Amino acid sequence: MFSLYRIAFLSLVRKEINRFMRIWVQTLVPPVITTSLYFIIFGNFIGGRIGEMGGFSFMQFIVPGLIMQAVITNAYSNVSSSFFGQKFQKNIEELLVAPVPTAIIMGGFLVGGMTRGLLAGLFVTIISLFFVPINVSSWLVVFVTVLMTSLVFSLAGLLNGLFAKSFDDVSIIPTFVLTPLTYLGGVFYSISLLPPVWQFISRFNPIVYMISGFRYGFLGVGDMPLWMSMTILAFFVIILFTICYRLIEKGRGLRS
Question: What are phi and psi of 57, to 5 degrees?
């Protein structure tokens, strides 16, 4: 039985990876182009006037945020679009009637989303090396933070795919929720520079903790304590996995 589950899991993962790799120009190239523009505009033109931030040059400071931004958006969009596409084409019904546990089905979609997010983050990291040297303070913190963040937003994309009833529902969350939260999560600035009221409001943005933890792994400094960032990540992983698992078990949004 374990062998059958392994084959099912690997088949789902292979399908998800092949799905975005077939159109890599549309899935992996845009983050690289966008990040290059950020470095040229914010790094070279504006960064020189801003000076240092947190004891580092502005370009060094924004690198972790830009990498995390690519990971978040790509992990989320891959799972949400893929899962809804399976629903729209009625292919998801084949998985529901197959003797495959819910955790295996979820794992296939999640690993696909995490793979795309991590690849996008890797390409952005490579591009950043052409603009600024990168010194890593703790590889362990970097790996754990980026893996957990990609998992969190893959789960969030799965949740979006479960509730989505049209392609507009898939795109509306990234446009009106995910993008603003990411830009307000400290990608281009330190939360400590904000007025006290906005610092307090920023603490309710979970992406602040993710970017802070990732930046700590690179630079050794962060807006939030590292233990708090890890706790927030673990909390969202557990909560989102539990919600998605129960919804799929009940067939919520899957069975008409």
Answer: -65, 155
225 phi and psi, to 5 degrees? -60, 145
On whether the CB atoms of residues 116 and 23 are closer than 8 A, the answer is no
For 208, the token pair is 């602040």
Structure tokens at 237: 């992983």
Short-list 4, 63, 37, 79, CA closest to 240: 79
Residue 167: how many other CB atoms lie within 10 Å? 12
Contact status, residue 157 vs residue 75, Cβ threshold 8 Å: yes
pLDDT digits (tens, 9 = 90+) for 132-171: 888 889 999 999 999 999 999 999 999 999 888 888 888 8
End-to-end Cα distance, the chain = 30
- For the whole prediction, is pTM greater than 0.85? yes
